UniProtKB/TrEMBL annotation:
This is ATP-binding protein. It comes from the Bacteria. The lineage of its organism: Bacteria, Pseudomonadati, Pseudomonadota, Alphaproteobacteria, Rhodospirillales. The keyword Transferase does not apply. The keyword Lipoprotein does not apply. Signal peptide: none annotated. It comes from Roseiterribacter gracilis.
Length: 77
């Protein structure tokens, strides 16, 4: 069962309330997304640590409900 882009955005915003989130459905199949996430929670973190925060926000859905997610993260100024 595929995940809805709105649900992905909601999960990320629950974990990172100040996040600016944009979700793009890359193939139109509800299975392959790109997420662009900017949050002050990312300040001082490596790119890997930033991505880990986003993956934690998805509560174990990666590889199951959510097949593929390309991440771009950045710290807010």
């Amino acid at each position: 069962m595929a995940m809805d882009a709105t649900h992905i955005e909601q999960l990320i915003k629950q974990a990172l309330p100040d996040a600016d989130v944009r979700i793009d459905d890359l193939r139109g199949d509800g299975d392959h997304y790109a997420a662009h996430v900017t949050s002050s929670a990312f300040k001082g973190l490596t790119r890997i640590q930033q991505h880990q925060l986003v993956y934690r926000a998805l509560q174990g859905r990666m590889g199951g409900e959510l097949h593929a997610l390309a991440l771009q993260t950045a710290a807010k100024d």
